[in-house]
Amino acid sequence: MTDHETTLLEAAAFRRLVQHLMQDRPDVQNIDLMILAGFCRNCLSDWYREAAETRGIAMSKDEAREAICGMPFAEWKSRHQREATSEQLAAFEVAQRAHPKAGPA
């Protein structure tokens, strides 16, 4: 497989991941993703922005989140995210201790 073909496959897998997290499963809360996987939708948008900046493309945090969410983040959040429960917050604390690189959801 060529480098170009690899890039095309990676891009297709990325688009599928974004669709799955943003459109197919918006019911899964960011904090639950952080607890279980160590990353969330916000992390994904940060990585997207960092990749753009690495290539000399200026992108704000809000622009990156909108690119991933398909709408302004505040709108997506108001439609789909709930306040974390005390149980989720406790589980997140445990996950952070086990994996200190995890950031806030």
UniProtKB/TrEMBL annotation:
<dbReference type="InterPro" id="IPR036810">
    <property type="entry name" value="SMc04008-like_sf"/>
</dbReference>
<protein>
    <submittedName>
        <fullName>DUF1244 domain-containing protein</fullName>
    </submittedName>
</protein>
<dbReference type="Pfam" id="PF06844">
    <property type="entry name" value="DUF1244"/>
</dbReference>
<feature type="domain" description="SMc04008-like">
    <location>
        <begin position="28"/>
        <end position="93"/>
    </location>
</feature>
<dbReference type="InterPro" id="IPR023163">
    <property type="entry name" value="SMc04008-like_domain"/>
</dbReference>
